[in-house]
Amino acid sequence: MAEFETQYQQLSVYDDDDTGEETDNPAEDHLMIHVVPEGNKARWNHIENLDEFFTRVYQYHQRQGFMCMVLEDLLQLLQFVFVVVFSTFLIVCVKYDELFDNVYRNRSQHHKVTLDDTIKSHEECLESFTSTIIFCLIVATAFWLFRVLKVIYNIFLYFEIRSFYNTALKITATDLPNMTWHEVQTRILEVQKDQQMCIHKSDLTQLDIYHRILRFKNYTLAMVNKSVLPLKLNVPFVGEYVFLSTGLKYNIEFLLFWGPWSAFENKWHLKEEYKEKSLTKRKQLAETLSQRILWLGIANLALSPLIFLWQILYSFFRYAELVKRQPAFLGSRRWSNYGRQYLRHFNELDHEFNARLNRGYKAADMYLSIFTSPLLAIIAKNVAFFAGSVLAVLVVLTVIDEDVLNVEHVLTIMTIAGVIVTSCKVFIPDEHTVYCPEVLMRNVLAQIHYMPDHWCGNAHTSKVRGEFSLLFQFKAIYLVEELLSPLITPLILIFKFRGKAGDFVEFFHNFTVDVVGVGDVCSFAQMDIRKHGNPQWTEEQESQASQKEQGEDGKIEMSLMHFHLTNPEWKPPENCSMFLNNVKDHIQRDVVAMSSMQQDLMGGPFQSMIPSGATGVGLGYASLVSSITGQSAMLSPSVNMSAPFASGVTPKMRGAVSQSEGPLAGSGGGLGTSFHSPSSSMTGPPTLQPLSQPHSLIHPPSSLLQPTSTSQRHYDEGQIELMSTDMSFSALYMHDLRTRRARGYYENLDDIRARSLWQRHDTPQATPSSGGTTPMPNIEERPLEEDSGTKEEDSNLI
Questions:
Q1: CA angle in degrees (0–180, nearest 5) for 488-491-495
Q2: Which of 379, 384, 555, 664 has an alpha carbon within 20 to 30 A of 735's alpha carbon?
Q3: Do residues 57 and 197 touch, judged by C-beta distance below 8 A?
Q4: Residue 620: CB atoms within 10 Å
Q5: Residue 101's pLDDT band (boundaries 50, 70, 90)?
């Protein structure tokens, strides 16, 4: 037996279908027939459709496992049946005359209407069916049967993914709720080394997995970023408006990515005609695509009555009770579908993106809430007073005698009055609201990471407020868009998208690259700074992209930074590493200069004029060094870190996080800093703290302070979560750095000390022996020009 095992270990466990190589030893061939390879390895080797497989693995984790996924799919089938059956019952089987007591209203003898009186008999219901209702039921039944088959097919796939989790990843259903996606992804990378799920590469990277899961989403993000999709409309009396309903989004994906007319042969390979170099062939392809868009628009137009009816029924059953119970629901806000495309990073998974937007929700809501109309507020207060008075009287009368509810329309009046009172509260500002749009916009930017250039310093204007509301819309507007989508989507496809068919073809032709082991992906998703970097966001030598090729609004740079922080084990290419290192250098120089500025402030004659806690303004940038490079900021030896600080608070830090106890001590003598997250605190400035504690129980070991290679680092899940929040501070810093570049500030960042308001060479100090006094510094020139919007207090800004 031992001899047999030794012989078998010398053989290949599987044949490579791509190379077609065969063994020359007949004895080995004989052994290959009789020896069965390990089932686990044979099962997951050479998965044909890795895009679908990795997507299902991700969804399995996000949807909490097999039972939750199956139950959710089955209940959705049941929900569809309920909506169709209940709607049909209400249309054909209810005697509304008797329900509203119209039959007995004029009779002298009182008659109490019962439930049986209001429902038709079985024969009467069948007689009430019209040809239109029968046609709708046939279509609904066909659609439901199609979904049943799809659910059955998905259940088998769910079972396969459960087997992969249990056997390959060694993750049970009990362990799954307590594991993060980063842990699952790490195990997938280990399984690849052992079982070769992808045969084109021996080792997969985090970026490979993200590419496969987000292949089509990255294309959509790039097309929105480059304004290829015609989503902006000029609406009369409204102005510029962005329309991207769920129905239109579905049609775009069907047309471009996975439908029979899509640009892709399969989920990972673009059709060869889109790669043709011949301009004539691409024009022919654009004409063909334009005709297909026309037919798709006509199909949507033909189905619009049915879809519109379904939208009305579904929205009514889903939101009617919620609106009655919480009328303020319509006055609340949500991130719009367009906003979710504009604000998303390349290679950002759904759970990462949703968490980031959720962190920015309160600040965004506060920002838009400070813009109130005094005229509407006065009207709303009076309307609420009148409606509230009527409601109060009826409530008191009902408490005295409940028979008041039997009076005709009393309950209706009470309901309407309650809705009016609650709705008016939306237009009445909170009496404790503080008008600080620039501070709030700064806190919003810390989480959403993107904003147009002209928003900077103009957050107090109605123009910026209107543009931001397109990203963060009322839920009432969202519901109206969804209801009208069946009617508007066909028109947009026919009259807007047809004319952009050539742009779609050119975009796929120009911005598709073939990645080994991944397939065709959007070149923007590669986050190649040299090819797609924006010169306004990078150094001159880093980007060679033309205006047509460069990403807008820092999309490439922000996406690279975000992916680097959420996947710290990933080793970026050389040009990406150059960009990250340059950002690190800028941070280190700013930390040194601002720390020296702080020392000058503390030692100068105006120390008594500095408010408590303000000495560390701007010094939070030092924390970015640890979050970007894994190293603590090395301040200049001239900085006296042992001096007392105004706050006197015990340091709480790891990188830019302020809520974790215990600083990180490094063997290299590095210094850590901390400041409060802009999303968690709006009341105090960031403050530099001395490193005093020798050890941290939660934060990474001191090896992270050393310039070790990325592959040698190990990060636990707590560190990964904290590093992802560091992106808030990185985004703010990168926006500030971009603004300084645009204005010509800091041609040499070492000049920051020379431009400082409080410099020692401008403030001659008297020696103790001379007994003289310290003269006032020269304060005529200011280091930075101010925007119109920065007249607010900047102590809350980073």
A1: 145
A2: 664
A3: no
A4: 26
A5: low
357-369 pLDDT per residue, tens: 999 999 999 999 8
Last residue of a domain, one of 461, 488, 504: 504
For 600, the token pair is 């000058």
| 582 C-beta neighbours (distance < 10 Å), count | 16
Number of H helices, E strands in the chain: 28, 8
Residue 290 lies in a domain: yes
- Total domain count, the chain: 4
Cβ-contact 568, 708 below 8 angstroms: no
Three-state helix/strand/coil letters over 317-365: HHHHHHHHHCHHHHHCEEECHHHHHHCCCCCCCHHHHHHHHHHHHHHHH
User: What residues make up the domain containing 260?
Assistant: 215-372+429-504
Q: Would the pLDDT of 563 be above 60?
A: yes
Local confidence band at 290 (pLDDT 50, 70, 90 cut-offs): very high
> Measured between alpha carbons, how far is 359 from 504 in angstroms, rounded to an integer?
34
Which one of 174, 201, 228 terminates a domain? Answer: 201
Query: Average pLDDT for residues 728-746, to the nearest whole number?
Result: 80
Q: Which residue has the tokens 């009396």?
A: 237
Paired with 23 in beta bridges are none
User: How far is 397 from 404, CA to CA, in rounded Å?
Assistant: 7
**Per-residue DSSP letters for 397-466?**
HHHH-GGGGGSTTHHHHHHHHHHHHHHHGGGSPPTT----HHHHHHHHHHHH----GGGTT-TTSHHHHH
Structure tokens, 501: 């068919």
pLDDT digit string, tens, across residues 584-637: 888 888 777 777 666 655 555 444 444 443 333 333 344 444 444 444 333 333
Two structure tokens written together for 716:
């636990």
Tokens of 365: 């809501």
In a domain, 706, yes or no: yes
Same domain, 19 and 75: no
Query: What are the Cα distances from residue 68, in Å, to 15, 59, 62?
Result: 38, 11, 10
Higher pLDDT: 689 or 25? It is 25
Output the six-digit token pair for 166: 């249990």
Same domain, yes or no: 25 and 71: no
pLDDT, one tens digit per residue, over 496-507 is 999 999 999 999
Residue 718 pLDDT greater than 50, yes or no:
yes
Nearest-angstrom CA–CA distance, 378 and 376: 5
Nearest to 284 by CA among 501, 44, 547: 501
